[in-house]
# Entry
Amino acid sequence: MDTTHCAVDGWVDAIPVPGPRDTVTFDLVVRPADIDALDDDAPDTIVTCTSGDPRITHELLNGIQPGDLLRATGTLVQPPTPGEPARLTVDALEVLDTALVPVLRDMVIDRYGDYCVIFDADTDAVPVFTANGTWVGLADNPDAIATLIDIHERVNGGDA
# Structure
């Protein structure tokens, strides 16, 4: 695989998603510098980004929303198969511009103290994470969130 250390400027496509082992994943929509030379219907490039840096993870989960313009610096890995998105392991993040209005569609992230939950209009199940992105579990419905958090705190000594 071909890897390159680089900086990529792009817009956040969707709400960043916590992953395993305190990581976060998000997609950047990247437009080429020579956009005027391309056809109007030329597709944008999607770069899938991942970071395990606690500072970056915290910022992505608490301060970034779809539409924000970011500069992500890290190691870019070209996909083994054409058509798949490139992957960038982010080690530095800079917010270049923020979206004008928060974009809330069918999903809403909410805080429960040191915990984050994601409400999705299409399902009753509610994913629960710690504020730093550690997976807690999937509550069957909103009424089960408090029970899931209580169990997590008893098992982990009360620290999120």
About this structure: The two ends are 37 Å apart (CA to CA). The first strand starts at residue 3 and ends at 12. The chain has a mean pLDDT of 83. Residues 145-155 form the longest helix (11 residues).
